[in-house]
Amino acid sequence: MILITPLASGSRGNCYHVTDGVTPILLECGIHFSDIQRKTGFNMSSIAGCLVTHEHFDHSRAAKIIARAGIDVYASGGTFNALSLEGHRFRHVIPLKQFHIDTWTVLPFPTEHDAAEPLGFLLVNQAGEKLLYATDTYYIRYKFNGLTHIMIEANHSYGILNRNVESGVLPEAMKNRLIQSHFSLENVKEFLKVNDLSRVQEIWLVHLSNENSDENLFKREIQELTGKEVYIAGER
Asked: What is the pTM of this model?
């Protein structure tokens, strides 16, 4: 059974503890290592690995210290190069080539973001449950069958962005950057419509913008669209 525990989510930092009941891993390490230790109950020795989507510090901040603690960090070569990280704990993964972390089979896939070589991850456990993790991308070019758990970015909505630009809260240039690098509520909906949701047990909306999102609205609209349990990832 997959259990997802958000430790932090958003522009200040992202980190999620995920386990299939056998192998605990981290998705992202974008907060201080001491905070990860505290939020995992100082049980870091049980963590089998950490998957990092890209080099931006709200996703990779603790990567070097996690490796020093004896935990393998998995990311693309472009991500490690951008962070100037090398060593045997930094495991280069290749897009669309699966690998294993104990009981997890992981398939990395390319995403669309203003980063060196960003990735999303499809994780499958030995019970056949499938977790999709995709963040910091304005588009996902792939379709997925048999998903049971979805963790997907819903950073902003176009309506809120436009209102914030009109009110002077958000510069037009920042609006354009967000549209070209982060998943909107509208694009999340289109993605969910074209994918097989028949086995989905829960959907987690992650990396919501503090200023450009609405938790209650986003949750309600995705629940109405999918008929699935929807959770908003926040800081634990």
From this structure: 0.97
